[in-house]
Amino acid sequence: QVQLVESGGGLVQPGGSLRLSCEASGFTVSGYAMAWHRQTPGKERELVALIATGGHSNYPDSVRGRFTISVDNAKNTVYLQMANLKPDDTAVYYCNRPIGSIWGQGTQVTVSS
User: Could you report the per-residue pLDDT of 25-36, keeping only the tens digit for each?
Assistant: First the structure.
């Protein structure tokens, strides 16, 4: 069964850091592009990080320089390292495999003092 399970969300103060994990099962992440998206109520889901099979990554201007996507092939896990977090980063974060439109259940990140 193809599945993505996110973890690592929580409450963090502005300027803080958080690392999200996405454990994959039923397929090997190294064979696919993988992505992280986020969504807040009333807004469309937003792509925040994408990593290609060759390791090249892309980010929107809103998070570039603060977010880093990476893959641990041994653990079959995708990570999203987030630094210098801002209140506007508050959202539910979803792991995604674009091919086949595979999504995780999401993990809540709240940035607040």
Answer: 999 999 999 999
